[in-house]
């Protein structure tokens, strides 16, 4: 599949949204990060570009899995991702995200130390730090 995702995709009451290994391009619609029902968001191995919204973690109370590997994302990993307290899998490998790692966000080409609070993340099951 290819093309851009329509903004309205975020209006769906999905629990899982998985579109890995396609040729989707463009910005990831901001509304997709506003879905309180979403438990798994996997957009890896596409050609999405741009920045992640600074508020991306504010409205994802049930998110358990966020996988954005191998896209063309850039900018910082928003610290708001640490609000998604049920997150167990976070993977953003091989993107061009930079900056200090928020307490819960790992992967990407980031700089700085792994936060000391890593030991307090009792729900985290997978930590991926590939290609840094």
Automatic annotation (TrEMBL):
Q: Which UniProt keywords apply?
A: Glycoprotein, Leucine-rich repeat, Repeat
Asked whether the UniProt record includes Repeat among its keywords, one would answer yes
Pfam families with a match to the protein in the record = LRR_1
Q: Which InterPro entries match?
A: Leu-rich_rpt, LRR_dom_sf, Plant_LRR-RLKs
Transmembrane as UniProt keyword: no
Q: At the top level of its lineage, which domain of life is listed?
A: Eukaryota
Question: Which parts of the chain are coiled coil?
Answer: none
Spell out the protein name for this chain: Uncharacterized protein
């Amino acid at each position: 599949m290819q093309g851009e995702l329509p903004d309205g995709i975020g209006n769906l009451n999905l629990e899982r949204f998985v579109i890995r290994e396609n040729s989707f391009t463009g910005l990831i619609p901001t509304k997709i990060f506003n879905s309180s029902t979403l438990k798994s968001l996997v957009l890896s191995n596409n050609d999405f570009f741009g920045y992640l919204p600074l508020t991306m973690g504010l409205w994802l109370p049930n998110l358990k899995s966020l996988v954005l590997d191998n896209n063309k994302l850039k900018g910082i990993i928003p610290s708001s991702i640490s609000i998604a307290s049920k997150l167990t899998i976070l993977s953003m490998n091989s993107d061009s995200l930079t900056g200090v790692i928020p307490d819960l966000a790992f992967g990407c080409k980031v700089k700085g130390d792994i936060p000391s609070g890593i030991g307090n993340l009792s729900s985290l099951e997978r930590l991926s730090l590939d290609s840094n």
